[in-house]
């Protein structure tokens, strides 16, 4: 992957270890990559390969009492590794947004979507309630969410998982973060909702120029969405390449194995592709 001034986020020599009664155990090592403006970087690898540890390192959400996080993680040139919690809280949600697998966990059941949307905006901006609500509605409209007014009045349990995930993405996008980390954002959804969520992420990328780190074990999703891909195995990056090169000419044995054993999306009776 090339390095240029479009790089928004740089990860250099990331090495994470956890303290165990037997001593230090390495979870990820020699992790190097960069995220470019308006590009989607796919992160693939089987369970336990270190994808979540890598993204939690970027967000500085690992338990520092139990873990050593070495290396450099810079956002627009600013070092994040070791930044005080207070500073990191300002960055999370505003400059780096996080979208998790199960959107239900991201919302509090007792408050309306609107309340939570507006409070999120107000935490990271100086907007008043009315302005925050307007921004929420504008963002929902700009990413084609239907009936924003009605959505804002709903409680989380009144919306489907797919719709909640789309609201979550609108919430993430509304403060125009430089980076969105989406950890398996479609895994819990049916095919129809997967498609809507992926379309929305792509829209956010193109409309706001957001860099997206898309973590997925689904190579169908990665092949449709990502510009570049990194493949992890046993806590290391074993291959990184442009998406076309990776799928057409995989070099590492593990990548070849992943491609051979990928789910048979394309062999279903009605070939399904994520047409964005
Ligand atoms: N809080 C933790 N404490 C100790 N070890 C951990 C912790 N979280 C993850 N690990 C270990 O770190 C390694 C990498 O895990 P990680 O969750 O990053 O994998 P992953 O690729 O995200 O897997 P999955 O796709 O299942 O989420 C694994 O060996 C895992 O057991």
From TrEMBL:
SUPFAM superfamilies: P-loop containing nucleoside triphosphate hydrolases. It is found in: Cell membrane. Keywords: ATP-binding, Cell inner membrane, Cell membrane, Ion transport, Membrane, Nickel, Nickel transport, Nucleotide-binding, Translocase, Transport. InterPro entries: AAA+_ATPase (IPR003593), ABC_Ni/Peptide_Import (IPR050388), ABC_transporter-like_ATP-bd (IPR003439), ABC_transporter-like_CS (IPR017871), Nickel_NikD (IPR014138), P-loop_NTPase (IPR027417). SMART domains: AAA. GO terms for molecular function: ABC-type nickel transporter activity; ATP binding; ATP hydrolysis activity; nickel cation binding. Residues 9-259 form the ABC transporter domain. It holds the Pfam family ABC_tran. The keyword Calcium does not apply. It is a peripheral membrane protein. The keyword Cell inner membrane applies. GO terms for cellular component: plasma membrane. Belongs to the ABC transporter superfamily. This is Nickel import ATP-binding protein NikD. It comes from Peribacillus saganii. The lineage of its organism: Bacteria, Bacillati, Bacillota, Bacilli, Bacillales.
